[in-house]
Specification:
- The protein is an alpha/beta fold.
- It has helices at about 40-45, 90-100, 120-135, 155-160, 165-175, 190-210, and strands spanning about 5, 25-30, 65-70, 75-80, 110-115, 140-145, 180.
- Strand 5 (about 110-115), helix 3 (about 120-135) and strand 6 (about 140-145) form a beta-alpha-beta unit.
Length: about 210
């Protein structure tokens, strides 16, 4: 298992989404606002305390952090990124360039982490920002990952059906793909395996659409 920390000064050349099928290995990047649960989601996926989590709104780090581990019999590489609105635009662009290099030739998927709470203006702007940072094809590679699902008093499907237009617009931009995590239950590996299957299905669908 490896871990790598970078700073903005080490940003590399930006890559595009020229990917091979993931087969056994899979690379994903966690993006979202500070406090949304990116790091804890990364820990849940890897099944260990790989990323340092923060208590509150302050960000633990301002650079990208990579961790690799075996998940459900396959090698999974995750890159945790700074909060989309916690650093300057230029620093964020440099870090995302570094992030893409760290997941070369990927990433296979972008996980936009959003806390299940009233949608904010920054949540809405996140989709636009991801497309600006990762390129026009980013929406096809993005899955919304809702955190704090354990706090819901209804099903997630019902919550979304009753949500305002802002959340529904975010989901439309990302092809309606979403998953939810109970970050407090590290032992629930089913929710992780379901996410990996969703990523595989998304990659297959994208490869099929581009081949026609």
């Amino acid at each position: 298992m490896t871990s790598t920390s970078t700073t903005a000064g080490t940003a590399g050349k930006r890559r595009s989404f020229e990917l091979e099928p993931p087969n056994v290995s899979l690379s994903m990047v966690l993006v979202g606002q500070t406090g949304a649960g990116k790091s804890s989601s990364g820990n849940l996926i890897l099944g260990r305390e790989a990323f340092v989590t923060s208590r509150g709104e302050s960000s633990v780090h301002t650079g990208c952090w990579r961790e690799t581990g075996e998940v459900a019999g396959r090698e999974v590489t995750l890159v945790d990124t700074p909060g989309l609105f916690s650093v300057t635009e230029e620093s964020l662009r440099q870090e995302i360039s570094t992030c893409i290099n760290m997941t070369a030739p990927g990433p296979h998927a972008i996980l936009l982490v959003i806390r299940l709470a009233p949608v904010t203006k920054q949540d809405v702007l996140s989709v636009e920002k991801i497309r600006a940072l990762f390129g026009e094809e980013a929406n096809k590679r993005t899955i919304i990952l809702f955190t704090h699902a354990d706090e819901l008093t209804c099903s997630l499907a019902q919550y979304i059906s009753e949500a305002g237009e802002d959340l529904k617009e975010i989901l439309r931009h990302c092809g309606g793909r979403y998953h939810d995590f109970n970050n407090k239950d590290m032992h629930d590996r089913v929710q992780v395996e379901q996410l990996l299957k969703m990523v595989d299905d998304m990659i297959t669908a994208n490869d099929t659409s581009t081949s026609h």
